[in-house]
Amino acid sequence: MAGELKLDETDRRILELLSDDARRTIADIAARVNLSPAPVKRRIDRLQQIGVIAGYTVVLDHAMIGPSIDAFTELRFAGDTDIDEILREVKEIPEIHEVFTMAGDPDALLRIRVDDVEHLREVVNRLRRTGRVTGTKTLMVLDRWTRPSAG
What we know:
This protein is α+β, with helices and mostly antiparallel strands. Helix content is 38%, strand content 20%. The protein has six helices and four strands. Strands 2-3-1-4 form a four-stranded antiparallel sheet, with helices on one face. Helix 2 packs across helix 3. The radius of gyration is 20 Å and the shape is elongated.
């Protein structure tokens, strides 16, 4: 891949540790990668500066917060639709949390979070009314599991 960054094993291990727990201390990371805290801090700062680390986030358990439904919706667009146009259409809908444009069929896969089935129906109908969507298929999530990163 053109422009791919060359990260060494220490950089990769630091990224893995931060992915596992973004609140991990510099001292803890330093101990795990066999460096002192100062060079670890410099590496993290460099990874942030060049954009490898784009931000830090919190992973929420939405079931504990209140009612919510996760769903995936496949979108099919007219054959002459540009990928940038697909992204513009879906970015306007706040319930859409992730967009994956695809090679092949479907054209895009969306991860949607809504309050209930009626709310999901409204979002899917809004997608269908854009005029560019030729077909949808929606799957509701029953449960979720995420592979923890190696720590």
